[in-house]
Amino acid sequence: MLNFSNMFSNVQMKDLRGFSLSLIASILWGVLPIALKELIVAIDATTIVWFRFLLAGIVLTAWLFFTQQVPSLRGHDRLSSILLILAASSLCLNYFLFSYSLNFVNGETSEAVIQLTTLFLIIGSVAIYGESFVAVQRFGTFLIVAGLLLFFNERLANFFHSGDGEGFGVMIVVFAAVTWTVYALIQKKLLKSYTSVQILWVIYMFSLIILLPFISPSLVFSLTGLQQLLLFFCCVNTLIAYGSFAEAMNCWDASKVSAVLALAPLFTIGSLKLIVYFVPDYEFSDRLAWLSLGGAGLLVLGSVMTAIVPLLSREPREAN
Q1: Domain range spanning residue 299?
Q2: Which of 17, 32, 235, 306 is the most exposed place for a label (fewest CB within 10 A)?
Q3: Which runs of E-coded beta strand occur in 67-190?
């Protein structure tokens, strides 16, 4: 009885740890577009992304050297090297596109549209890896599409006639979702040769070199004190969010982690509602109506439903 109790307690602690880490990542990714939106008015997207990669790259380099896990590109077949470069290019482009889109849309919109990664990942997994597409996933897909239509209800007709470029911004986020999906699908293949941390390290190093000719680091000195703090927050956000995500995947089912991460848009919307409550004239909020909020709820529900399918089928999917 005592052993059973200890085992039950260990399971509970593992679930609590997995849920807590997933929630941390979800909250950080939820509030990230709010900080980026404040920054993008003063500094270009490329420079922001480069600094985010810089801090994460420094910490990961120290960690991999300390644990003697620095990856070697030698000894792997040519296909793995090509896929690694393609994954790095895709994630680098995803970071840039998501940040750049905030020149045209607010945080609520960017975080809602980026949830298309759930739908795109399902389609890619079915097409490339031959995974099943069961009824629950079909219904979840329907909810995602319906949620997006409700979220944008009154703005759909204005997307291609609006002078503020919101439609263009939405399309940029859609492409950002596509590039993240490409990265995730490739990483699934690369995990046979590298750990997730090693893959991220290579991506960060690759991106730092590729983006270097296009950055304007001197702009950092023209930022206000608050903007510099926000830039530092975005850098730390990258490190802690991905670290929490990776650790959550190590101790919890991938389907459960994905379900919690799908809550990110709610944290974006909730945070902006709170900001508007205290600062009524805050300009970087869509001030969503109830119908749009309902659409966001459907979007999250659809994402959660598609994420928990592997758990329901007792076949947890591989970490992405």
Answers
A1: 26-312
A2: 17
A3: none
259: left (phi over 0), alpha (psi -120 to 50) or beta: alpha
CA distance 204 to 208: 6
- Structure-token pair, residue 282: 């805050």
Could you tell me if residue 280 is inside a domain? yes
Q: What is the pLDDT of residue 219?
A: 94
Say which amino acid occupies 152.
Answer: F
Over pLDDT 90: what percentage of the chain?
Answer: 42
């319906």: which residue's tokens? 146
In the structure encoding, which two tokens stand for residue 248, read together? 């959550």
Sign of CA dihedral 74, 77, 79, 84: negative
Sign of the Cα torsion 172, 174, 179, 183 reads positive
Q: Which two tokens stand for residue 48?
A: 């922001």
Domain count, the chain: 1
Nearest to 98 by CA among 213, 238, 240: 238
pLDDT single digits (tens) 188-235:
888 788 888 888 899 999 999 999 999 999 999 999 999 999 999 999
DSSP of 258-295: HHHHTTHHHHHHHHHHHHHHH-TT-SS-----HHHHHH
pLDDT in tens, 62-106: 999 998 888 776 666 778 888 999 999 999 999 999 999 999 999
Q: Within a domain: residue 32?
A: yes
Q: Would you say 144 and 305 are in contact if contact means Cβ atoms under 8 Å apart?
A: no
Evaluate whether residue 1 is within a structural domain. Answer: no
Q: Locate tokens 């219904």: which residue?
A: 139
Q: How many helices (H) and strands (E) does the chain have?
A: 13, 0
What the block records as the tokens of 249 is 């995947």
Do the beta carbons of residue 162 and residue 105 sit within 8 Å?
no
Task: Identify which of 268, 114, 112, 242 has the alpha carbon closest to the alpha carbon of residue 181.
Answer: 114
The model's pTM is: 0.86
Maximal CA-CA distance, the chain: 69
Instruction: Please tell me the predicted confidence (pLDDT) of residue 221.
Output: 93
